[in-house]
Design goal:
Helix content: 55-70%
Largest sheet: none
Order of helices and strands: HHHHHHH
Number of domains: 2
Number of helices: 7
Distance between the termini: 63 Å
Radius of gyration: 21 Å
Shape: elongated
């Protein structure tokens, strides 16, 4: 059990994602692209808190935001849980994640928002108005709306 490598466990998780469709493989591969160079050929028993602390420090030194590191941390945690389910890893290592940075450090004042909005096409003005007024996410909440779902006359 202690000879199992990160590479095998990462492959198991990738296969899990592929067969269960629990996560988009392209998204997962984006996370693996950062984890794999750092952890490849390391034994699972070496992937505890100390290794993750070094990983976090290395990613932060590259200028990576804590939010992205936390998402990568989540993939590593999922690797451990799948390895545990497959009886390849006992016990699950404890790894600590960095504190997320506040992604919203400043807000548009209404007058600033109106200046930016006037520079956009009319269809985008509707989208950013919804973003601004409701605090919705552009990609997943606003742009997925269909015309019949909106009361544009209101």
């Amino acid at each position: 059990m202690n000879k199992v490598l990160y590479d095998e466990l990462a492959g198991d998780l990738r296969n899990h994602y592929q067969t269960t469709e629990e996560r988009d493989l392209d998204e997962a591969d984006g996370r693996f692209a950062h984890l794999t160079p750092f952890f490849t050929l390391k034994r699972a028993s070496e992937l505890g808190s100390a290794a993750m602390t070094k990983y976090i420090a290395a990613r932060q030194s590259e200028g990576t935001a804590n939010g992205a590191i936390i998402q990568e941390h989540g993939v590593l945690g999922r690797i451990f849980r799948v390895a545990y389910e497959n009886k390849k890893l006992l016990p699950i290592p404890i790894i600590h994640k960095p504190t997320p940075t506040n992604p919203r450090e400043s807000f548009f004042e209404r007058s600033q928002f109106e200046v930016v909005k006037r520079q956009l096409r009319s269809d985008l003005q509707v989208a950013v108005t919804l973003d601004y007024a409701l605090g919705w996410r552009t990609q997943s909440e606003v742009l997925t709306l269909q015309r019949h779902q909106m009361g544009l006359n209101a």
